[in-house]
Amino acid sequence: MKVSLFSTCLSDILFADVAKNTLEILERVGCDVDYPMEQTCCGQPAYNSGYLEEAKAAMKQMMKAFRHSEYVVGPSGSCVSMLKEYPHIFAGDPEWEEEAKVFAAKCYEITEFLVDVMGITDLGSTFKGRVTFHSSCHMKRLLGVKEQPKILLRNVKGVELVDLPWEEDCCGFGGTFAVKNPVISQEMVSEKSRHVAETKAEYLVGADMGCLMNIGGRMEREGKKVKIIHITEILNTH
User: Fold this and answer.
1) What is the pTM (predicted TM-score) of this model?
2) What's phi and psi for 125, nearest 5 deg?
């Protein structure tokens, strides 16, 4: 199975190990992985800020970069959900509408790809600790991926997975939302921090780096000792 790795901006700039772990996981399960160097931002920051034409330029570059790919897999539910919006954004465009449909149909978040496409629920991973999982908004509400990461976590030897109270609640990040509505965002992440602490988990696990960065920053400022970790780090421990 040939897979192209979509690394995402946050992984490129701040969390390089997330892309590395994603690559190694895909190779472990037998995928032939390449990395198109022409890839860029998915366009979400510009699109959500109302800069449609600027966002479209990035989106067109993404579609061109992955034209050869059979599957496009990334370690972010938020970014992949943006790729799935391309057919809607380019609807009626005689040049790009069909390509947007083809592109979106082959894009997957890593846990979604493993469980739904490859049929893998146990990677043979080992990780010792009490963990709780934050289900990010874009991943569960837009992409529709909710149970797949938990299925994989439950099958990691040594992991004690505990439910996060009010899991459905947003952490307050929301990309530009945290910038435009900082007071509301702070209250939301403070509430999420309290819920994480209630689980007495050693690790907060997530599949979106923006959320983890937001929650982790708040918990650190509050002096809470919970470690923030992307799900690929746990799945790639063996």
Assistant:
1) 0.95
2) -85, 155
